[in-house]
Design brief:
Helix 2 crosses helix 3. The protein has 5 helices and no strands. The protein has 113 residues and is an all-alpha fold.
Length: 113
């Protein structure tokens, strides 16, 4: 919003604005810090974003993709943690577990009809 204000003010005055890059940099760092704080690291958030993108590409509605993606992300992480423990659990471990977790969920869905 601040950058939009800069654009409007300096656009009207016909002056070059060198402050845009500073505002964008602050916004980028704020987003990165928020991502790290909410997901335990940027990799966890990016993994979930990839799962959600894949589900959306398969034709799921955004609401269903969000629910299924978050559940699948947590289910795969729980399977890895049960095998190896929580200490040292990496996003790459969860990525490697996703096919097996998806197959396990598909088998349960097929059994329950």
């Amino acid at each position: 919003m601040i950058a939009l204000g800069y654009t409007m003010v300096y656009g009207v005055l016909q002056l070059i604005n060198f402050a845009h890059s500073e505002v964008f940099m602050v916004g980028t760092f704020a987003g990165l810090f928020a991502l790290k704080a909410l997901s335990g690291g940027p990799q966890g958030g990016l993994l979930l974003a990839g799962i959600l993108g894949g589900l959306l590409a398969q034709g799921y509605t955004p609401a269903v993709a969000a629910r299924l993606g978050v559940f699948l992300h947590g289910f795969a992480a729980d399977r890895v943690a049960a095998r190896r423990g929580m200490i040292g659990l990496l996003a790459s471990d969860v990525i490697e577990e996703l096919p097996a977790a998806t197959a396990a969920l598909s088998a349960v869905a097929a059994r329950e009809g």
